[in-house]
Amino acid sequence: MIELNVNELRPDQALARTVYRPSGDVLLTVGFKLTEEVIAHLSEIGQSLFWIQEPGLEHIIPEEIMPDFLLGPAAEELRANAEHFRRVAKVPDNFDTKMVRPKELVCEPSRFSGSLNSSRLIKIARGLAKEFRRSKPPFLLHFTTPRSVANYPFQHAVDTAIVAAAIGRIFQFDEDDIENLVLGTMLMDIGMQLLPLNLTNKSDRMSFAEFSAIKEHPMFGFEILRNDSQIPLICAHIAFQHHERQDGGGYPRRLIGRNASPQKSELNDKRYIHRFAEIVSVADEYMMLAHAKPFQPQKSPLDAIKFLLRSAGTQLNSAIIDTLIPMIPVFSVGNRVQVIASSKHSLLGATAVISKTNPERQDRPEITLIYDAKGNWIEHEVYHLAQHPGIAIQQI
User: Fold this and answer.
1) Pairwise CA distance, residues 134 & 24, whole Å
2) Does residue 60 fall inside a structural domain?
3) Residue 369 sits in the same domain as residue 251
């Protein structure tokens, strides 16, 4: 199979993987043959990448740290909770610089009591944590769940929760800690639901007043979650602290970090960022780089790593970044690459796809040729680059 952008799809191509709606319901099944009308509809609803059946490429199977049929419904549950919460809170559609209503609401938590389906969210977080326990290190953070403008905030929260869980696993957190880390990360931005959509969805530069309002969302989230008797208090602190930074330059309380391994401590010094929030800060930053918002450019894996390294110590916990970087996939199955060096002249300039990653040597994956240097479809030869040191590739 091969991964194609919606603009590359052609009528009569057959799907190699089921396409799901954001709700987790099936939209199109494996084997469905595309038509011009269906392709146009997929483009309209914001679906962008699809796995297509292709003779000779049956050995290419997407790798994922967790099945998208679990991550998609989790994101949909978050979306449904957010919409219900906004209705209960009667959040206005448009931002007003004089708006103080969110602060009034968090001072009266009884007004949105029960607006979250907390038991359902806890069950989902527990299920994701349980599924993740089946995975064994070394982890590579492959995510294949589609993102659209409408579901991005919720899919981002769920995927970030999985990254946080992976970091927690490496640091040998116990099961309860992993579950709370997943739940707290899923709900880290719940405070955004007290802000108007035209503010939270704004794609251009914000005014000082608008950004000041956005910076209130950790406090809103803390108040919402700490007043929910079913949600562990640590989840409220994750929401409160995930924008704090190691050097004290974050918000809302300008806490500082220890830049140390996030292990349990008997001391509870309130000047410092909680270790869970330190993990979530790193996971959140990475996912925003690697899987950017629909209107923002996405960083390459190497650029994301460089950004994280520049942030280590001052912005983000350096010990956690050191733990995350080996899990960042340099290549993912389906990525297209070009052969830029080879002792075999016919390979130079050829286009290939990554058909299998290599966690032990990420720079030496398995590749499968698809086009020659002139763009002609060619026989799909497979090369295990760990066995072919003379072949060099670069991502297209």
Assistant:
1) 22
2) no
3) no
Rounded to 10 degrees, what is the CA torsion of 349, 353, 355, 360? 70
Q: Report the number of distinct structural domains present in the chain.
A: 3
CB 181 within 8 A of CB 173: yes
Alpha-carbon distance 299 to 306, whole Å? 10
Q: Provide the pLDDT for residue 20.
A: 73
Q: Do residues 245 and 314 touch, judged by C-beta distance below 8 A?
A: yes
User: Is a pLDDT exceeding 70 seen at residue 99?
Assistant: no
Q: How far apart are CA 276 and CA 178, in angstroms?
A: 10
C-alpha dihedral, 203 to 192 to 149 to 1, nearest 10°: 130
Q: Would residue 173 be called left, alpha or beta, if left means φ above 0 and alpha means ψ between -120 and 50 degrees?
A: beta
Give the range of the structural domain holding residue 6, as residue numbers without chain letter: 2-52
The pLDDT, as a whole number, for residue 114 is: 74
State the Cα–Cα distance between residues 270 and 7, nearest whole angstrom.
Answer: 52
pTM of structure: 0.86
pLDDT for the residue numbered 105: 60
Shared domain for 244 and 382, answered yes or no, is: no
DSSP string for 66-121: S-HHHHHHHHHHHHHHHHHHHHHHT--SS--TT--HHHHHHT-GGGGTT-S-HHHH
The CATH number of residue 182's host domain is 1.10.3210.10
Count of residues in the chain? 396
- Looking at the fold, whether 14 and 38 belong to one and the same domain comes out as yes
Is 379 found in the same domain as 259? no
Same domain, 27 and 168: no
Structure tokens at 57: 């490429």
Query: Exposed/middle/buried for 40, CB within 10 Å: 0-12, 13-18, 19+?
Result: exposed
Query: Which run of H or of E encompasses 234?
Result: helix 233-241
Across the strands, what pairs with 51? 3
Same-domain check for residues 323 and 389: no
**Helices 275-290 and 233-241: crossing angle, nearest 10°?**
50
162 and 300 assigned to the same domain: yes
Summarised one tens digit per residue, pLDDT across range 245-266 is 999 999 999 999 999 999 887 5
pLDDT at residue 270, as a whole number:
83
